[in-house]
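tokens incoming
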């Protein structure tokens, strides 16, 4: 699972249906099922993470898989070991899957080309964050009862450095929604006209009639200096506030992949408002990652085809 571009719309719907099944399991008093008993997953996070790492760990454990977490500072990467040698070392321990987050775009692909086990991309540089886009899709799907056609999503903020924006543009378009982008010119990708989106520089106009706004934080760890003259001016011009929601479509919902910087890309009260689905995104993240671990870790096994059919859902 390297990016959502490898999935067709039916495969996306199958993942979302599987995740909906696991959402129900996550609402039970006892949330553990034996589905992946005996399987092992390495969580190799060479960049910081709260949501993605914890939810993959929780997802694996709820499916009874054994999970092993490795961070950059606790690994031999800091002693000069290469990513390739680290990956081959992990593979020698025979895990069924490796979940990787890395600051280099293409790191997950690099591993997938060298390893036999399943590789799941948990975010690579500014390239892709497929599991985030899928959990966002599950959040939209629940909000819109599965119907993305005719819906418009505004993605707001630092588009240039955002893997979340890239994966969401691909996935939302695939599912039939329209996508708008808004942000300062210095935080737009080099050729936004080549993306299947409408581009706005005025936030007020960008919000008119939208069914959802997805706010993004400034990815300062990926930015060169000098892209923004002043943080307060950025917040005034591109920070989402209650006034912007007045021109949006009725029922417009607010998403944010997190972590949020209150008062910068989004007004603090709005982040906590009834329109905000930010914590539902986190909840959906566990279910989507359970679905992905289940589907990818069982695909090569004899029971895979049965396990992936709706009637063969794990109990
Ligand atoms: N959305 C997201 O990837 O958050 P984390 O960096 O906390 O995992």
């Amino acid at each position: 699972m390297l990016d959502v571009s490898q999935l067709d719309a039916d495969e996306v719907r199958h993942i979302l249906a599987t995740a909906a099944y696991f959402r129900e399991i996550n609402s039970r008093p006892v949330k553990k099922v034996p589905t992946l008993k005996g399987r092992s997953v390495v969580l190799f996070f060479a960049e910081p993470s709260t949501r993605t790492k914890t939810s993959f760990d929780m997802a694996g454990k709820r499916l009874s898989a054994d999970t092993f977490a490795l961070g950059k500072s606790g690994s031999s990467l800091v002693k000069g070991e290469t990513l390739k040698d680290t990956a081959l070392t992990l593979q020698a321990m025979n895990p069924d899957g490796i979940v990787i987050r890395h600051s280099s775009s293409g790191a997950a692909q690099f591993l997938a080309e060298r390893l036999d086990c399943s590789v799941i991309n948990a975010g690579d540089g500014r390239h892709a964050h497929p599991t985030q886009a899928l959990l966002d899709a599950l959040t939209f799907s629940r909000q819109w009862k599965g119907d993305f056609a005719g819906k418009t999503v505004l993605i707001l903020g630092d588009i240039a450095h955002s893997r979340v924006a890239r994966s969401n543009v691909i996935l939302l378009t695939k599912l039939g929604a329209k996508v708008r982008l808004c942000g300062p010119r210095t935080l737009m990708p080099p050729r936004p006209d080549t993306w299947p989106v409408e581009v706005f520089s005025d936030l007020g106009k960008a919000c008119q009639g939208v069914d959802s706004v997805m706010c993004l934080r400034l990815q300062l760890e990926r930015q060169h200096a000098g892209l923004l003259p002043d943080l307060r001016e950025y917040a005034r011009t591109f920070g989402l506030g209650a006034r912007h929601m007045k021109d949006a479509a009725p029922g417009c919902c607010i998403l944010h992949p997190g972590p949020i910087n209150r008062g910068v890309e989004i007004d603090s009260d709005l982040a906590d408002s009834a329109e905000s689905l930010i914590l539902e995104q986190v909840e959906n993240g566990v279910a989507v990652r359970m679905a992905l671990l289940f589907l990818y870790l069982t695909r090569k096994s004899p029971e895979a085809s049965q396990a992936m059919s709706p009637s063969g859902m794990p109990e």
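note: The two ends are 24 Å apart (CA to CA).
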